[in-house]
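task queued by scheduler; priority normal; single chain, no ligands, no partner chains; default sampling; output format set to structure tokens
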Amino acid sequence: MSAMQLLQTLELRSREVRLCKRANDWGGRKAIAGFFGVISRLGDGVFWYVLMLAIALFGGAKGILVALQMALTGLVAAAMYRTLKRWTRRPRPFRTHRDIVPLVLPLDEFSFPSGHTLHAVTFTIIALAWFPLLAPLLIPFALLVAASRVVLGLHYPSDVLAATLIGCALATTSLWVASSIRF
């Protein structure tokens, strides 16, 4: 890496930390921390399990298959993000920067990528491919889950961005596989 590339990388990293700190400071307000804490907790799985159940119960025969697709893809997503976290071992922002405060307890030790965001993006894309009328509910919720991870001091923005890209690729692959099976 050249000296110029190193300087650019350090500047980008510095900007990311500043953004993370600003979001975390904003989240330090009791009402905001409470709101994003609830969103994050729902994003742990509760919201998605209820969604899969509702799709299975009210979506007819297609709904059962879509819920199954979401569950199977969710298992793949969990394996992916756990493997990536063990491989990259990136510390969470609050572990590296004393002025970033964890506003909730993390579920695991490492930061990269955001598992909450990965699941939110993956589940949202799959559900919307089959049930587009859910967009007014799912898109804002997925965005809030992603934002919550930075606001709560648990992830850097790049963790969330990477998880978004991985989630898009995983959901697209899942939909491609499902179309070849012909649900």
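post-processing summary
- DSSP finds seven helices and no strands in the chain.
- The first helix runs from residue 3 to 27.
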